[in-house]
Amino acid sequence: MPVRILVIDDDAVACEFLEEALSLEGYEVQPFTSASEALALDLSRYDLLISDIRMPEMDGLHLLNRVRERYPNLPVVTAYGSLETTMEALHSGAWDYISKPFSPEAIRSMVQKILAVRDLHQRRMRGQPEQKEEPQFIGSSATMVEFYKQLVRVADAWASVLIEGESGTGKELTARSLHQLSSRSQKPFVVVHCGAIPDTLLESELFGYEKGAFTGADHTHPGLLESAQEGTIFLDEITEMSTALQGKLLRFMQNGEVRRLGGHQMQHVKVRVVAAANRNVDEEAQKGNFRSDLLYRFVVRLHMPALRTHKEDLPLLIRSLMKKMGHSSVRISDEAMELLMAYNWPGNVRELQNVLQQTVLLSPFSIILPENLPERLHPKKSGDLPPLSPLESAERSQVLQALQTTSWNQTRAAHLLGIDRKTLRAKIQRYGLLKESSS
Questions:
Q1: What are 161's strand-pairing partners?
Q2: Domains 307-377 and 382-430 equal at CATH topology level
Q3: DSSP-derived 3-state class of residue 167
């Protein structure tokens, strides 16, 4: 059965445009230029209502209230009037809004999203569980594609892997992906957070102990290395491990043998060792905090890209995180997205997820506006900006000159600079440029 969409707009041309754009996708569209005529119908037969805000006979806000009273489960999308009326519409129960003039791609994308959210709500009402997704990387930039290639190449090998990168980039996700992409995916995947376990306890956890090995050892306890037999053990924050314990790990990686604390028998364990470093491993080795011979036992070193190096993946990543958090219906306004794109994300994906969670909880509407985002994402005044490199200073001056030449017309300034408008906005945010800037 085709999806049925009701369109209400006093502008017949707008109705015709929406009907044509949506019909091409196979939707059944019924346009009306009168809100009162549309309300005379049984709207329960429709899957979505798209309505203009400004209409002479009955405005979109009045229509929205009438529809919410009689058909509370019918998704309603309003066409942008002013910011004030849009916020009022969202507060009254509109699912989303779309700005005029319309583009066919934006209309179709919005409808697909709204219908997907509606289906999710219906499944929840029927008590149907959502399908769980396996952990996966999000991003199609050249940076991430190259990283995926490296991941796939080494996934099925037994070679030990050291994953490096800044905090919050997804090192544990990388380790899990290495395991899932390998022929060992049905075998154990054991995670050990080295930084969270005292060193003496970490040794007994990794290697196990025999009954009576120490006070309180009232039973034999196999270690985590044994429990990961034929699978993968992931040692997170390996640089937090003491050099003495690093030596014992080195011996295991050399011969695959484990001797429990208090025991004499050697056991052979076949397990792939994957580790993650929360510090610069080469620097730690030079300082003597990390054994060089252990470092050389890691055959493969993978470097996780920082989020700021592939910010073109942000929109896709944000959609994925919002879906994961159960907020698929929440939309990011264009202005808010510009702030998100301009920010450098020192905390990487973890910080991004935290910002989205905080913003959704504090935002009263189903759309995130710039004022809903944390203060640190907003542009700073020139005096508060960190020192710029000579190249950055030259670029800032060039951007400012183009803006002043065009009386701050961003479209014309972007054309002068040979960049698109979104890139220009990102640079304005990055360099804290304001209209009153003079240098």
A1: 274, 300
A2: no
A3: coil
Distance CA 352, CA 317 (A): 9
- CB within 8 Å of 66: residues ≥ 6 apart: 39
Two tokens at 248? 């014992």
As assigned by CATH, the class of the 142-303 domain is alpha beta
243 to 249, 274, 290, 294, 299: CA distances (angstroms):
10, 18, 6, 10, 20
255-278 average pLDDT score:
91
CA dihedral for 303, 306, 307, 310, sign (positive or negative): negative
Architecture of the structural domain at 382-430: Orthogonal Bundle (1.10)
Q: Does the domain spanning 307-377 belong to CATH 1.10.8.60?
A: yes
Q: How far is CA 284 from the centre of its chain?
A: 31
* Closest to 46 in 3D by CA, of 60, 67, 63, 17: 67
Distance CA 183, CA 171 (A): 20
Long-range contact set of residues 377-383: C-beta below 8 Å, sequence gap at least 24 = 377/339, 377/340, 377/342, 377/343, 378/339, 379/339, 379/342, 379/428, 379/429, 379/432, 379/433, 379/434, 380/432, 381/432, 381/434, 382/431, 382/432, 382/433, 382/434, 382/437
Rounded to whole angstroms, the Cα distance separating 90 from 400 reads: 37
As given in the structure block, the two tokens for residue 396 are 């800032």
Contact 31, 7 (CB under 8 A): yes
Structure tokens at 89: 């519409």
Range with the poorest average pLDDT among 147-156, 157-166, 172-181, 384-393: 384-393
Does the pLDDT value for residue 254 go beyond 90? yes
Strand, helix or coil for residue 248? helix
pLDDT at 10: 85
Residue 374: asked if its preceding bond is cis (omega within 30°), the reply is no
Question: In sequence order, what are the beta bridge partners of 392?
Answer: none
Instruction: Give which of 127, 9, 21 is closest to 78, Cα–Cα.
Output: 9
Domain boundaries, the chain: 4-125, 142-303, 307-377, 382-430
What's the CATH architecture for 4-125? 3-Layer(aba) Sandwich (3.40)
State the greatest distance between any 2 C-alpha atoms of the chain, in Å, as a whole number.
Answer: 90
CB 111 within 8 A of CB 22: yes
**DSSP letters for 117-165:** HHHHHHHHHTTPPPPP--------SHHHHHHHHHHHHHHTS---EEEE-
Q: Which residues contact 42 (CB under 8 A, 6 or more apart)?
A: none
Please state, rounded to an integer, the average pLDDT across all residues of the chain. Answer: 84
Do 70 and 76 contact (CB within 8 A), yes or no? no
